[in-house]
Write a structure and sequence with these properties.
The structure is a single chain. With 348 residues, this protein is an alpha/beta fold. Helix content is 42%, strand content 14%. α2 packs across α9 and α9 crosses α15. The protein is globular, with a radius of gyration of 20 Å.
């Protein structure tokens, strides 16, 4: 059964490519690109946080804008604070929170199109090791699996712990750079809980191996935890790059917003025909189950919610002293100018 909003119409690949080719001359005629070849870093490229980016590339939405995009996977366990490395990378696909961390370190980076309106991670406790679980207080001294230090999973776990007066020093966070490693660790009893993204959580849920205690894969779960939307993945680049290449950034945003719009109406069959086979991890059913869990978190238009960016700073300031001590200018960490223009064009 298709998730809500995905069964209104089926978007065939042939139609998608046809539209892309028809709009290419118009798009390129509208603005001259300062840079047509773009390298985008996407740690853990196959993860759902980069899904809109993957589809924009696979469906030819970037090429329709005159762009030649190279997506580089630096590994799911890459450091949370990631910035483009010199001339090798121009743009990063990653959590919006990174732009705040980078500014706190004296680096000016700006997010220009939102992919996820929630972090799309969930926290689950081992059904085998914590059978009598009643409260996060029982996590004191326990080992919690996350994808990387400073990840959305660790942030979620910190919020859960703080609600009962615990801090990250009361638990042991263990980083796993791959989904398979995280799954193996929980199943073998090496960790007592996991705070991770998909498809890890769905894989454990379907076999009753975890009990989810906090969930940001849905808007409701996110609102319950943070009181507002909480921006997840986005595309961001240095302010210098954006200022020097505004037409290129706009073209990237056009492709991304078009991909986000495609995701709002595509069928599950369309999705599995577009996503690279290797992303399905050998289990198409599990992949679609996981997508059903996160589809609500996907931004419909690439626009950053103002209350959400303020909440992100508030949460990071609470758990990361360096950010709490810094004078972060939120207005420099994101811009809705490009996504708003792309949305207006898509509605025209």
């Amino acid at each position: 059964m298709n998730p809500p909003g995905l069964n209104r119409r089926s978007f065939s690949l042939a139609a998608a490519f046809s539209v892309a080719s028809l709009t290419a001359p118009e798009s390129q005629a509208q603005m001259r690109l300062e840079k047509s070849r773009i390298a985008i870093a996407a740690p853990g490229r196959a993860s759902f946080q980069h899904l809109a980016l993957t589809l924009a590339d696979q469906l030819g939405f970037f090429s329709a804008e005159g762009l030649e995009v190279s997506i580089q996977d630096s590994g799911a366990g890459s450091p949370a604070v990631q910035a483009p490395a010199g001339a090798a990378t121009d743009v990063v696909s990653g959590p919006y929170a990174q732009t705040i961390r980078l500014q706190a370190q004296g680096q000016k980076f700006q997010a220009f199109v939102l992919q996820g309106r929630t972090p799309a991670v969930a926290m689950g406790i081992s059904s085998r090791k914590l059978r009598q679980y009643k409260s996060p207080l029982q996590l004191r001294g326990r080992r919690i699996g996350i994808s990387a230090v400073g990840s959305a999973g660790q942030m979620l776990a910190n919020v859960v712990l703080a609600r009962v007066g615990l801090t990250e020093s009361d638990v042991n966070f263990v980083s796993f750079g791959s989904s398979s490693a995280a799954l193996a660790a929980l199943r073998s009893g090496q960790i007592d809980a996991v705070s991770y993204g998909e498809p890890v959580i769905s894989s454990l849920e379907r076999k009753g191996e975890v009990r989810v205690i906090a969930d940001t894969r849905t808007l409701k779960g996110t609102l319950d935890l943070f009181g507002s939307q909480m921006p997840g993945a986005c595309l961001y680049a240095s302010l210098d790059f954006i200022k020097k290449n505004p037409n290129t950034v706009q073209a990237l945003t056009h492709g991304m917003v078009r991909s986000l719009k495609w995701l709002q109406t595509a069928s599950l069959g369309d999705l599995v025909r577009v996503v690279p086979e290797s992303y399905l991890l050998g289990n198409r059913v599990l992949y679609l189950e996981a997508f059903n869990k996160v589809h609500e978190s996907i931004s419909p238009d690439g626009i950053f919610p103002e209350d959400g960016v303020q909440t992100t700073l508030k949460v990071l300031s609470r758990f990361e002293p360096a950010i709490g001590a810094a004078r972060v200018d939120l207005g420099l960490t994101y811009s809705n100018v490009f996504a708003t223009k792309a949305r207006e064009r898509s509605q025209g």
